[in-house]
Specification:
- With 159 residues, the protein is an all-alpha fold.
- The chain has a single domain, classed as Ferritin, core subunit, four-helix bundle (Ferritin).
- Helix content is 82%, strand content 0%.
- The chain has five helices and no strands.
- Helix 2 runs antiparallel to helix 5 (124-158), helix 3 (77-91) packs antiparallel against helix 4 and helix 4 runs antiparallel to helix 5 (124-158).
């Protein structure tokens, strides 16, 4: 069996890093979405959780096409900590605003993973896939940020 090239190994490492970020994001959207009181936001978070799973599947397929067959990944330790932190905030009475702050921070991590990946020399099909996914993640981040800001303004007006 031939040894994989250095470029393939680097590409595999990059995609695995993004897959881990997507797992964190998918789980975060699922957990936070289940706790949100605002039904519109809950729906958005459900859809985004599913979308992160789709993104993960696309990247795993790309790895398979490159000859990588074992693509069993888990999330990161930081994602696990963020999830536990969000759970604690909910138990302590944190409302939608607090959950949206946590979600935005998690999206910052996903954006960072994509930015770092796109700075690397990648095969064109992989670069195109990552670029499309990154655009969606940026838009999702902005939506969460705007929802957070709107939620904070509404909370301020009620008090």
């Amino acid at each position: 069996m031939p040894n994989p090239s250095k470029a393939l190994l680097e590409t595999e490492e990059i995609l695995r890093s993004i897959i881990q970020a997507l797992i964190d994001s998918q789980e975060g959207f699922q957990k936070i979405g289940a706790e949100l009181k605002n039904e519109t936001l809950r729906g958005f978070f459900r859809v985004e959780s599913l979308r992160r799973g789709e993104f993960r599947g696309e990247l795993e397929n790309l790895l398979h096409q490159e000859g990588v067959h074992d693509v069993n990944e888990s999330g990161t330790m930081a994602g696990t900590v963020r999830g536990a932190w969000a759970d604690l905030k909910v138990k302590l009475g944190g409302g939608d605003h607090t959950l949206l702050v946590t979600a935005e921070r998690a999206e910052d991590e996903a954006k960072r993973a994509y930015k770092e990946a796109l700075e690397k020399d990648l095969p064109l099909p992989i670069r195109q896939t990552l670029t499309g996914q990154f655009a969606h993640i940026q838009a999702s981040h902005d939506y969460v940020r705007n929802a957070r800001d709107s939620n904070k303004q509404q909370s301020t007006l009620r008090n």
